[in-house]
Amino acid sequence: MSESTVAIRYAQSLIGLAQEKKVVEEVYNDMLFFKKVADENRALLLTLKSPVVRHEKKIAVLKAIFQERVNPVSYTIFEIVTKKNREGILYAIADEFVKLYDESKGIVVAHVTAAVALTDELRQQFSQIVADSTGKTVQIKEKTDERLIGGYVLRVGDRQIDASIRKRLSDLKLSLLN
In order of start, what are the domains of the chain with their CATH numbers? Predict the structure, then answer.
């Protein structure tokens, strides 16, 4: 079974348990916290994914970092996954949980990559465009990439609009070659 399929199943189980215990918001914040810690500390992810590091050591690391800082429901999933030797997918589980939560709340995440930082006006325009097309509340995640030269790349779910100058130049180059 693929990692994403397993992660989705664990995330669905976790959201069900969190709903049952009425701690969905806390678990959501815990999953965001886990992702933030993992993003900022590459060594944590490497340790969790390493087949060389013993499972006792991995659970000790998770316990030291998270046990006192997260809801017991969240920590329980860390223990269960580690006991089943699947600690390498904890990040994917957290990511899937956040997606399920956003979906249940009617939130869609729009990823905007632009050559320069977005102004408040542009941010509002992107939010409005996505909200009009999806009918959902929009959360903008922005990134700058100077290689785009100008323009933007907008990605919502599995759809992408590439309106960058780099893409236009690439298209022009291909049309001139043909």
Answer: 3-103 (1.10.520.20), 106-177 (no CATH)
Torsion of CA 112, 164, 148, 131, to 10 degrees: 0
**DSSP-assigned states of every residue in the chain:** --HHHHHHHHHHHHHHHHHHHT-HHHHHHHHHHHHHHHHH-HHHHHHHH-SSS-HHHHHHHHHHHHTTTS-HHHHHHHHHHHHTT-GGGHHHHHHHHHHHHHHHTTEEEEEEEESSPPPHHHHHHHHHHHHHHH-SEEEEEEEE-GGG-SEEEEEETTEEEEEEHHHHHHHHHHHHH-
Give the global pTM.
0.80
pLDDT in tens, 47-84: 999 999 998 899 999 999 999 999 999 999 999 999 99
